[in-house]
Every structure is written in C-alpha cells, then in structure tokens.
Amino acid sequence: MSCQFSFRRKKPESVKSVKDHAEWELKSAVEKLCNKCYTLNIMNKLYGLIFDVDGVIADTEPVNAKVTIKVFVDMFGLKGVRPQDFAGGIGKGAEKYVKAAADVHGLHLTDEQIKAAAQLREQYLIKAMQEEPLPAFPGVLELINAALQRRDFRLAIATSASLELSRAILESAKVPYQRMVYVTGNEITRKKPDPELFLVAASRMGILPANCVVFEDAPSGVQAAKAAGAKCIAVTNSTTAENLSQADLICDSLEQIDLKTIIEL
Fold first, then answer.
1. How far is it, in rounded angstroms, from Cα 253 to Cα 265?
2. Which of 114, 188, 204, 249 is the most buried (most CB within 10 A)?
3. Are strands 212-216 and 249-251 parallel, antiparallel or unpaired?
4. How many separate domains does the chain show?
C-alpha cells in the first residue's frame, strides 16, 4: 500500500507561531486518522464497492434521452434532437447532458436556461419511473446482495444525479440502498471526471480509495475513479469498450463479475 503515513508525535522546531502550531496540529490529526484507517483496512481486509446509478444499476439512458428530447421541444421549440446528441454529456451530470445536445444543434443557452431545462428533465424522469419502473441490469442485484452478506465488504451508491431522481431509480430497480452508503449530486460541488464523488463515498465507508472498486459505464466516470485512486470495473452498457479503456477491467455485464474477481483485481 502506498497510502501509509508516519505520524509525527514530536512537534518540529520549525513550528513557532500560533498559525504554524495550528497547521501542525491539523496535519498531525489527519495523518493519525489515515494511519488508523490504513491499519483497520489491512487488519480486517475491507473492500469497498461503489456503484454509479445511471447506466450501471439500470438501463436509464433510453428514457433519459426520451424525456430530454421532450424538454427541448417543450421549452425551446427545438425538434429533431436525437439520442446520440447527448453522448458528450453522459455521466457528467444533468446540466452537461442538456448542454451536449444544445451544442450539437447550435442552440445557445444561458446558465439559467440550462439549469431550468435540467430541472424539468428531472421532473419528467421521476414521472417516467413511476409510470414504468426500470428493472436492474442482470447481475447487479446478485452482486450487491452477495457483498452485503460479507463482513469484509462495504457498499456505496455514488451518483451525480439528485437524491430525488436517484432514489426513484434505485427503488424502481429494487436496490437495497438503505443498507449502503449513499452519496448524490446534491452533496458535491465538482462533477466527474473530478474524483470528489468517489472520494466522499470511500471516506464515508471508512475505506481507503485504493481498496475500493468503482462500477462505471461512462468514460468520465472511469476517469474519476482512477483519479480517486480506486480500481474501476467498466460495463459496456452505454458505450464501447474502447471508450472505457482506462478501466482496470471491462465487461459486457455484471453477470460476469463475482466477489472473487473483485478481490483478485
């Protein structure tokens, strides 16, 4: 492991001012916490599994595209938007998803318009989930339930989507998210490919990122997982294997993944 720290118990002579002392105290506390986390992870051999939602838990992309196309018609009178027009925004949050198609069609939208469109999209999505629930992808529930039965595994949901939307998807797919750490886009300030989302999830599980495996379907998500220092298993639900090449393992379905595969990754 490369994440071990040496906790300095003796204050160095260079610490003289009140400010220097405060900074030394903070750094020492962080180092002590990291040492404790490192020791617990090694002694108990804990593994963290972090699941994205859209495109990993359930096949949300077709309905995402369908309702967002409706948003463009209803809000801006723009017809002719196609599902592939959203490709540049997949996995990057609702606003970038909307902006991707707007850019394809040369439609200039203000930040306020993009935000309003993303909010309307969310309303349409939640309604769509209620009217026609989406099942989980094959292998997802089996993998989650197997890990929940093990003492050496901890699980998290980490999604750029809002709490309301992601919960609608998870409940639709019958994912036992109440037994998992749950981080949503409401709680972070930086979207993927920034690693913030996955770092927060690892921290809440109490597991070093290096001992975590992130399940992703989008290139930006794979980049975020690797930037966090985690392993990444990418599933080709939303794009090609070539676009997910930075992942540690690429599969066509989570049916191909079991806990032994994860431990040996």
1. 17
2. 188
3. unpaired
4. 3
